[in-house]
Write a structure and sequence with these properties.
alpha+beta, six-stranded antiparallel β-sheet, five-stranded parallel β-sheet, about 35% helix
Length: about 475
């Protein structure tokens, strides 16, 4: 966690502080996150590198908190309910790429650049189902984890890959409506004028945004023409009717193009998959963050079922129907097993081949980590070994390694990585990849999908994956899906 905190501080000038998690009190559904230090002064200036090192040396497993607002130059929108997604999706341009990460509660946080000319304060439920973290707020950032789960960047949407865009003016105007206690379902034009909506300089964008919302809401174009005419007459100054009608045509044509493009993107992505198709995987691959896009994606997948390209296996899971079969070239296949050694001499009973997945399932404290560390020791001189640890801090790891009858210098042959989720992008295709362990806190049936993603990244390497096993059960979390 220290490494991540230092990267946020040095590479992104974010004000990082250590956070902890208090479990829920009796009668409460959720635990609480709180700073481990007095943090008022850090609302005004960044900590030093020495401060950060001192904090995480004292609390190695502390979550990485980022003080939002002017001090870090960012704010976040925290969405944790379906109504929140529906609120936010209508306020953010569809083509905007936003750094986004998932939270243990199943929601997500979107990171934006803090407006320079507006003082925004943090607010809870300033829109239904979502919170704003701005001045006076703190957001927990990846790769933090707590007993409820992990925080992880959505694939391709981390701060290193996508710079935070400005907070959309449509969102700012919307939360002003809420903060002024104006009824959100039908604000008067007089109120909109008092909030500087539909005024000279912004009326073009405001009108186009409103028309885009009508399209997403399923309203016919004729209805949009009538609304545009009413709005155009009440703009300050009045909007030319011809221009207003042209904006209706533009908004609706844009919406149609977007659906057509999404249809082709989903089809192209499906045809690249080998066998199983997971809806959530499609959302991530195509960066579908908004509820409308996700709904259209599901509709497209069901159309592909009718066309005979896919068949539905279960809720959210499809399978490609193979149109032809590839020839199997058994004559040039190398049948020599990989020289992999396992603890307890298990290699004397099994052969290991390229792209094999080995699952080690065990109850808590049954010895999974001991098994995997011995596996790394037995193979580090002959193979490239990458060890992903989701639980051990560097101090615990070193203590455990020192118990081996192996010089510490030898352990430098292993690439030690801290990772708690989203392992597939980090897999080295031709190495011995050891995952200690694959954390799953809900939707255990998805274990098969997660293992399949890891399998797809392998070439001549293998992956050894540790899973927790409930007491008294024969299989690890995910049951038959994991064995499959």
């Amino acid at each position: 966690m220290m490494k991540a905190a230092l990267e946020y501080l040095k590479d992104h000038s974010l004000c990082v502080i250590p956070m902890t998690y208090d479990p829920p009190a009796p009668g409460e559904a959720k635990g609480k996150k709180r700073p481990l230090i007095r943090w008022k002064e850090y609302q005004e200036h960044l900590p030093t590198e020495q401060d950060v090192r001192k904090w995480w040396q004292q609390w190695p497993d502390a979550m990485v908190g980022v003080v939002t607002g002017a001090v870090s130059g960012i704010c976040t929108i925290d969405v944790d309910e379906q109504i929140g997604y529906e609120q936010v999706e209508n306020l953010i341009p569809d083509n905007l790429e936003i750094p986004t990460y998932t939270t243990p509660s199943g929601g997500c946080q979107m990171v934006f650049r803090m407006p320079e000319d507006i003082s925004l304060q943090s607010a809870v439920r300033n829109l239904p189902g979502c919170d704003l973290r701005a001045n006076g707020g703190i957001a927990v950032f990846p790769p933090s984890k707590n007993p409820a789960g992990s925080y992880s960047w959505m694939f391709g949407l981390s701060l290193c890959e996508v710079p935070p865009p400005p907070l959309p003016i449509a969102y700012i105007n919307k939360i002003k409506i809420y903060s002024n206690k104006v009824p959100c379902n039908n604000p008067s034009l007089q109120t909109l004028h008092s909030l500087h909506l539909l005024q000279e300089g912004t009326r073009d964008n405001d009108l186009f945004h409103l028309l885009n919302c009508l399209y997403k809401g399923g309203y016919e174009k004729e209805y949009a023409f009538q609304i545009a005419e009413i709005i155009a007459k009440n703009c300050n100054p009045a909007f030319d009717l011809k221009d207003a009608y042209a904006k209706v045509e533009s908004a609706y044509a844009r919406g149609e193009r977007k659906i057509q493009n999404l249809n082709q993107e989903v089809r192209d992505w499906v045809l690249l998959q080998e066998r199983y198709i997971y809806v959530t995987e499609c959302y991530e691959a195509l960066h579908l963050l908004h509820a409308t896009d996700k709904t259209n994606c599901r509709v497209i997948l069901h159309r592909l079922c009718k066309e005979g390209i896919l068949e539905r296996i279960s809720q959210g899971t499809f399978r490609r129907i193979e149109q032809d079969c590839a020839d199997i070239d058994i004559w040039s296949a190398d049948v020599t097993p990989l020289p992999i050694k396992y603890p307890l001499g298990l290699h004397e009973f099994v052969n290991t081949y390229p792209k094999n997945i080995i699952v080690v399932a065990g109850e808590p404290d049954a010895g999974k980590t001991a098994f995997l560390l011995n596996l790394a020791r037995l193979n580090m001189c002959q193979h490239e070994v990458v060890y992903f640890s989701s639980e051990m801090g560097r101090i615990e790891l070193r203590n455990r390694l020192e118990k081996f009858n192996v010089p510490m210098e030898e352990w430098k042959r292993v690439a030690w990585k801290e990772r708690a989720a989203d392992f597939a992008p980090m897999i080295r295709p031709n190495a011995v990849n050891i995952i200690d362990f694959l954390e799953i806190h809900e939707n255990f049936f998805e274990v098969g999908k997660l293992i399949k993603q890891i399998f797809d990244k392998l070439e001549n390497g293998i992956a050894v994956i540790a899973l927790q096993k409930p007491k008294g059960r024969d299989e690890g979390l995910g049951g038959q899906r994991g064995l499959e």
